[in-house]
Amino acid sequence: MALVVPKELNELEKPFSLPSPKPFEIRFQVPDLRVPIRDFLRTREVGEFLSGALAGAMTKAVLAPLETIRTRMVVGVGSKNITGSFVEIIEQQGWQGLWAGNGINMIRIIPTQAIELATFECVKRTMTSTQEKWCEIETPKLKIGRLNVNFSLSWISPTAVAGAAAGIVSTLACHPLEVLKDRLTVSPHIYPTLSIAISKIYKDGGVGALYAGLSPTLIGMLPYSTCYYFMYDKLKKSYCQSKNKKSLNRPEMLVLGALAGFTASTISFPLEVARKRLMVGALQGKCPPNMVAALAEVIRDEGLTGLYRGWGASCLKVMPASGITWTFYEAWKDLLLVERRIL
């Protein structure tokens, strides 16, 4: 008699074995950022930022000696005239003294000019767009008795607002570099290098010392920056309309930029004198408590003419700097923006 065992039972009698485990793997996939980065670098804002940085660096490299002389005259160090200051620097420090603090000056001007010009362009576009949209809708009105008040934005100059914003933003971002530059320029024997200057300033007053004189700097920067950009824009538009042309050539940018810088510097120079006195006054042991006190001290010691001490040297530096900066800035914008058809 034969016993037939079902096939299923035979399978159950076989020894049970687990499948061999697969090796454990963790894979990380890095996203491809090349396209987003490339698109970001080609935006209008980045192009304007880079144009401002390059224009500022090239201008400062050429005009550093005039900046050194101007700073010494404004704060009352050494001779009271341009020629005397020039000779003193050569005798005391050699030719390299004309570029004292130029390293920090270059470090300062690149982010300052980039932030300032990029902020100016961005705010100007935003304000212009806001005004255009505001004009398309019915503006709010307020009626008080027989008096009708129309809330219109047409009286606000986008260029003036953008200029003020540019000065304030760049000052807040880069003021510590301005403090370092002044210390290296005025007292190179006390602050021979950038690292020593940072160490001593921090040791004496902490982080707050790097923002010494911030309030007067903002007060002085506001009228200068507002007037500077407003004047250049108005001069540019008026000149183009009179000559029936769409844009300026390079020599015209140089001249109009210089005129804008001259006007802005002349209007705001007394505040610049007070600002410099406050920022480096501690070095001479007679730092005024505030800007009004600094202005009063200058008038008491030197008369009203003291408010414009160093004005000639300032114009000698500001005028070519303004003209050259606008020329370089527009040239770099042509390269970085126009060729990409952004403008």
UniProtKB/TrEMBL annotation:
Alphabetical list of SUPFAM superfamilies matching this protein: Mitochondrial carrier (SSF103506)
Signal peptide range in chain numbering: none
Keyword Transmembrane helix belongs to the record: yes
Keywords, ordered alphabetically: Membrane, Repeat, Transmembrane, Transmembrane helix, Transport
Its membrane topology: Multi-pass membrane protein
PROSITE patterns assigned: SOLCAR
Subcellular location: Membrane
Cited InterPro entries: MCP, MCP_dom_sf, MCP_transmembrane
Renumbered ranges of Solcar repeats: 43-126, 154-238, 248-335
Protein name, per record: Mitochondrial adenine nucleotide transporter BTL1
Species of origin: Hibiscus sabdariffa
